[in-house]
Amino acid sequence: MYTLGIESTAHTFGVGITENDRVIANERDTLKPLSGGIIPREAAAHHFRLAAEILGKALNKGGLRLKDIDLFAFSQGPGIIPSLKVGASLSSFLSKKYGKKLIGVNHCVAHLEIARLYTGLRDPIMLYVSGGNTQIITYYNKNYIVFGETQDIGIGNLLDKTGRRMGIPFPAGPEIEKLAEKGKHYIEMPYSIKGMDVSFSGIETFVSKIIGRETKEDIAFSLQETVFSMLIEASERTMAYCLKNSLVITGGVAANKRLNEMGRKMCSERAAEFKEIPMEFAGDNGAMIAYTGYLMRDYNQKDLDIKPKFRTDTVEINYR
Amino acid sequence: MKTIAVGSEAVVYENNGLIIKRRVKKGYRIREIDSNLRRKRSRAEFRTIKELYEKGISVPRPVKYAEKTEEIWMEKIEGERLAERFTEEDAKQIGIMIADLHNNGIIHGDLTTANIIKKGKKLYIIDFGLSYHSTKDEDMASDLFLFKNALKSKHNPLYNGAYPLFIRAYKSHIRKEFKGIDTHLKDIETRRRYNESY
Lengths: 320, 198
Hints:
The complex is a heterodimer.
Chain A: E1 2-7, E2 12-19, E3 22-30, H1 40-62, E4 71-77, H2 81-98, E5 101-106, H3 107-119, E6 125-129, E7 134-140, E8 143-149, H4 155-165, H5 173-181, E9 193-194, E10 197-198, H6 201-210, H7 216-242, E11 246-250, H8 257-269, E12 273-275, H9 286-295
Parallel strand pairs in A: 1-4, 4-5, 6-11, 11-12
Antiparallel strand pairs in A: 1-2, 2-3, 6-7, 7-8, 9-10
Chain B: E1 2-6, E2 10-15, E3 18-23, H1 31-54, E4 62-66, E5 71-75, E6 80-81, H2 90-103, E7 106-107, E8 116-119, E9 122-125, E10 132-133, H3 137-154, H4 156-173, H5 178-192
Antiparallel strand pairs in B: 1-2, 2-3, 3-5, 4-5, 6-8, 7-10, 8-9
Helix pairs in contact in B: 2-4, 3-4, 3-5
C-alpha cells in the first residue's frame, strides 16, 4: 500500500511516500527568509510555488505515478493557517481526482510516530522542540498526552528572537550553537520550571538586556546551557512521573548536539534509553505524515478541515 | 540506611524512621547551574516544610537541614504515593490543602499526584523544591493550573468528576477573591496553547 503525505504546517513544504510502513521518498524545501522571521503569507506562497516540483521529486524517488498512490494524507494542524491551506487543498484535490481516501494527520503525533519508527523505542517520552512547539509528549490512556509544555514562547522562537537581536539570521539555532562552543563564562540566567512546564519569556527579556554588554559567545553558551537544562529537567520529571524509561528528542532544534548530549547523559544517569533520530526525520517532513496516515488508514474521519490549534491530546489513537 | 525512592532529582533514604532527602548531581547540567539549583531548592524546601508544619498543615515533620551535605531530614509518613491510587474523593481534600498553602502565602510549584502521600484517608503534601512565597493571583493560578493539567493528563478518566470537586473546595477555602485567580488560570491555559508568534 502506497501512502503519500504532505506536510505544510509552517515554513517547510514536504512530500513523503511510504510503502506500507517503510519510507521510500522524503522530499522537502524550507523557506529561509533573508531577514526577520516568517511571514505566514510568504510561507504559503513558497509552498504553492514549489508544491508541483517537490511532489514530482518524491514520485520520481519512489518510482511511482500519482495513480499508483492508494492513500493520501496531510498535516491538519497545528500550524499557520495560510501554510496549512496549501497542503489541505492539494491533498484534497488529489484524493478526489484519483478517488482515494484522504487522512488528516496531527503534526505532533506524526513527529512521535516517525521517531518511534526510526529509534525502535516502543514507548518513549518525546521532547519535541521546534520554532513554535515545545512539548513533552507521551502515550497514556490511549492518547498522546502533553505532560509538559512551554507556557509562553517556543524554544526555536526564543533562539530566533535572541539571534535577531544579535544580528544572526533566521534560523538562529545553528549559529548560536557555534558561538556557544566558544563561550567560557557562565552568566546566571532565570531558570524557570513549573512542574513539567517551562517558561522562556523571563530569559528572553533578561538576554535582551545583556546583549552588547557581554560577549556573544558567553551569551550563547549561557542561554543554551540554561534553556536546555530546563528542557532536559522537565523531560526527566515527566519520565519519573509517568514511570517511562526512554527518551527521544525531535523537531528542528533536535539538530543541536549539546541538547542531545544532555539528553543522553540524563538518560544514562537514570538507566534509561536515549536514541537520536536521523535529522531528516526530526525536522518537519512529509514522510512522517505519510507514515502516520498509513497507521490511521482505517479511520473514518468526518472533519478534514485544517485545525490551526489542533491539540495533540484530542487525537484518538486506536492503532496501537 | 536504605534507599526507598529515586525520584527525578533526589534520592530518598530511610534511617530509623527518618527520611533523608538528597538532591543528586545532574551530569547533564554544568556545575554552575547544577550546584546552585540543588542548594537553592533544598534550602527552600526545608524552610517551607518547617513553616507549613508549624502552621499545622499536613506536611512531613521536619527534623533538620544538614547544610554541608545539603540533606533534608524529616519524619517518615507511612503512606503511599497518590499517583497510583488517586480517586475522585481525594480531589476535595486536595482543594482544601492547596487553599491552605495559598492562605499561608506558599506556592508549591510542582503539584501532581506524585507529590501527595496518602496515609489511610489523610493526604500529605511533599516535594517543596520548587516552592516559593507569593500572594499574587497569578502564582496561585499557576499552582491550580499544574494540578488541573496533572488531573487531565495522568488521571484523564477521572478528570471530569474530580476537577469540579477540587476547584469548588479550593474556592470555598481560599481567603481571597477567586475571580482574580480564575482570570489568570484562563490566561495560562490560552498562553500554553500552540503559539503562532512568528
